[in-house]
Amino acid sequence: MTLSPEPIDRPQLAAATAPHLMDAGSTTRRMMGDVLLALLPVVATSIWLFRGNAVRVTLLSVGVALLTEAAVCRMRRRKLSLPDGSALITALLLAMSLPPELPSFSVCLGAFVAVALGKQAFGGLGQNLFNPAMVGRAFLMACFPAAMTQWTLPVSTPVATDGVADSAVDAVSAATPLAAAKFSHQFTDLESLLTGNVAGSLGETSAIAIVLGGLWLLLRRAGDWRLTLGMLGAVSIGAVAELLLRGREAGFGWLSHLSSGGVLLGAFFIVTDPVTTPLSARGRWCFGLFVGIIVMVIRLFAGYPEGVMFAVLLGNAVTPLINRWTLPTPVGGPVVLPRQPTSEEGEADA
């Protein structure tokens, strides 16, 4: 009779793919939910300032983006990805970066391009190289430059009509604070920039609303603070340098630079996209600084008054290089692979 050997007590090993350290509460749906909550003050303020146009642009962008996401998933025979909330966030960010009077056809086309080409063409969530919302906006900027640069004052802003202030006038064209400062040397007061009583994109006018939502985003760790501080720091340094070189009469002021245009919206909601930004902490510092520097270069030396969209897309393009340059050293030191002999050396040994 053969006795079977006693079982040996071995440790249980589980093989799994990276990441090996996971937070059960940190999911894509939870992160997108935090971003959505952070965007609520921005969306609500845009509706208060621009009323019907804000509602129209937002609803069209969201509707087309969700339909496009569902259609592409069905065409690729993949599981419907609408529950993760990424398409909704892309649609809201695109809508908040558009002019209030943009035609409905253009809004729908931008939302389609943002999801179909900016996101799904690369393979879906987590695989896109460029920020989808900025891809949609860049496409609209190339196709409809005149419509994308037509700005109107908020509905609640009093407008002088024949010497009498009239707040009932709708769709009054006006230059953005950056355009007025760059081309006409007319500077907007800081109070208007903070409250949003200026012309601009739907979600970039009120600095207070953006900061409130952005702080919630950072507190919930849905965005990396290094990216935000890096971009804001670079813009602040460029603004201070402009004041020192050009003087107060020609300089816009560092607080005005931060509060105008898409700097705050980009710093809190665009560059904090974890998919299109570097992986390491040092790389994220580099990314934020790079985007902020490009923004100030465009604002100060280019013919275009704003440069957040271009800076973000350029930063997305160099993200693979930043990842390579800032690769962290593994525990125990860098891995040194054995040198492989060349063909000539192999023939000589033979």
Low-confidence stretches: 160-169
Distance between the termini: 57 Å
Number of E-state strands: 2
- Overall average residue pLDDT: 84
Helix content: 40-55%
Beta content = under 5%
The backbone outline, from C-alpha atoms, is globular
Q: Which sequence of strands runs across the widest sheet? A: 1-2
Order of helices and strands: HHHHHEEHHHHHHHHH
Biggest sheet statistics: 2 strands, antiparallel
What would you call the structural class?
mainly alpha
How many individual helices? 14
| Rg over C-alpha atoms, rounded to the nearest angstrom | 25 Å
List the helices and strands and how they pair.
Elements: H1 28-50, H2 52-75, H3 86-96, H4 104-116, H5 132-143, E1 159-161, E2 164-166, H6 177-184, H7 190-195, H8 207-219, H9 225-246, H10 254-259, H11 263-270, H12 281-301, H13 308-325, H14 343-349
Antiparallel strand pairs: 1-2
